[in-house]
Write a structure and sequence with these properties.
Distance between the termini: 30 Å
Radius of gyration: 19 Å
Number of domains: 1
Strand order of the largest sheet: 7-8-9-6-5-4-3-2-1-10-11-12
Number of strands: 12
Bound molecules: guanosine-5'-triphosphate, 5'-deoxyadenosine, iron/sulfur cluster
Low-confidence stretches: none
Helix content: 25-40%
Largest sheet: 12 strands, mixed
Number of helices: 13
């Protein structure tokens, strides 16, 4: 696989619904220092929870090799996720290795370690960062992350990222009815005019441990109405086909906000994302139950071409569109946890 990308020569790799493979989200650890109640509830992810042993987690060399193979297959964007990716020791070293691939490298983080890491990550070649911050209300935030972590430290991390040149920083806020929906306007107001972009995410039924109910979801349209009543909004076009966020611009200046409406307006039709778990399995949907074990291939002497052929065959067969099919019956199906596969 030298020279031109396989996708340049053969055309894009397509799945059974004609969706190309464009993004790879790489989970570098299944651990997290937060215990967000909608993601890693303490009752499940407590002291006795068995995280992946080190030997099962892909090494940096293995991750970089997989990333290179995916780039040859047409992937244009890598996103490092977790768990919490900054808990993986030496993360800037991995970013430096990945930066040898001509590709966009982004990071999704809870922001808790960005004051120390933003600069080394930027120096290593990270291009963008998305920080999860569900509310500015300190009491509500400490309750939601269930690790007593304060809002101020995440805001410091966001500032550090901006100073390191990782802006515009995207801020992801998962909104749950009756928990933090009353703080939506504060978040919008705080970041309006800063150049950072807040994206409000509908609470999803990922994983099997968070006890999700449709009643907990605040529709994106409602969130936009709430903000628009104080700061008038007008719709803005997508930056690229398949972008998950619906963008809205402040009519009187101050930048933009967005909503990610995976429950009320699913976007499976243009979903170009693949996910690699920390232990090297390939998942073709956030709601998948079975992965394709690439680690075994990596560790048994398979060539790049053989691994590419396995990925290509899996992608060709891909039929996933969970969010479009979401219904009471699918809510009962087994699912893997988001902290394992990355958001
Ligand atoms: P950029 O446009 O590069 O910033 O990436 P992005 O908008 O995909 O950002 P990000 O990866 O932060 O995605 C935001 C959130 O949208 C995720 O954390 C998920 O909650 C949700 N999301 C992203 N991709 C998917 C997907 O494929 N399916 C579903 N159902 N939700 C998704
Ligand atoms: N619904 C929506 N978003 C979620 N995230 C984690 N769990 C859920 C869920 N159940 C978000 C995190 C982070 C990203 C990785 O995914 O808040 O922004
Ligand atoms: Fe950790 Fe992110 Fe899950 Fe919260 S949502 S527990 S910060 S991985
Ligand atoms: Fe893609 Fe699956 Fe999410 Fe649909 S539900 S957008 S197929 S990851």
């Amino acid at each position: 696989m030298r020279g031109a990308q396989a996708s340049d020569v053969l055309g894009p790799l397509l799945d059974s619904r004609a969706r190309a493979l464009r993004d790879l989200r790489i989970s570098v650890t299944d651990r997290c220092n937060f215990r967000c109640r909608y993601c890693m509830p303490r009752e499940v992810f407590g002291r006795d929870f068995e995280f992946l042993p080190r030997s099962e987690i892909l090494t940096f060399e293995e991750i970089a090799r997989v990333a290179r193979i995916f780039a040859h297959l047409g992937v244009q964007k890598l996103r490092l996720t977790g768990g919490e990716p900054t808990l993986r020791a030496g993360l800037p070293t991995l970013v430096r290795m990945l930066s040898e691939i001509p590709i966009d490298i982004a990071l999704t983080t809870n922001g808790s370690r960005l004051t120390e890491l933003a600069r080394p990550l930027a120096d290593a070649g990270l291009t963008r960062v998305t920080v999860s911050l569900d509310t500015l209300d300190d009491e509500v935030f400490r309750w939601m992350n269930d690790a007593d972590f304060p809002v101020g430290a995440v805001l410091d991390g966001i500032d550090a990222a901006a100073r390191a040149g990782l802006g515009p920083v995207k801020i992801n806020a998962v909104i749950r009815r009756g928990i933090n929906d009353h703080t939506v306007l504060d978040l919008a107001r705080y970041f309006r005019g800063t150049g950072h972009i807040v994206r409000f995410i509908e609470y999803m039924d990922v994983g099997a441990t968070n006890g999700w109910r449709l009643d907990d979801v605040v529709p994106g349209a409602e969130i936009i109405r709430t903000i628009d009543a104080t700061f008038p909004l007008e719709p803005a076009p997508s930056n690229y086909p398949g972008e998950v966020v619906r963008r809205w611009r402040y009519a009187n200046g101050g930048g933009e906000v967005g909503v990610i409406t995976s429950v009320t307006e699913p976007f499976c039709g243009s979903c170009t994302r693949a996910r690699l778990s920390a232990d090297g399995s390939l998942y073709t949907c956030l709601f998948a139950t079975n992965g394709t074990d690439l680690r075994h291939l990596l560790r048994s002497g398979a060539s790049d071409d053989e691994i590419a052929a396995t990925v290509g065959a899996r992608w060709n067969a891909r039929d996933d569109r969970y969010s479009e099919l979401r219904a009471a019956s699918t809510a009962e199906l087994p699912r893997i946890e988001m902290s394992y596969i990355g958001g």
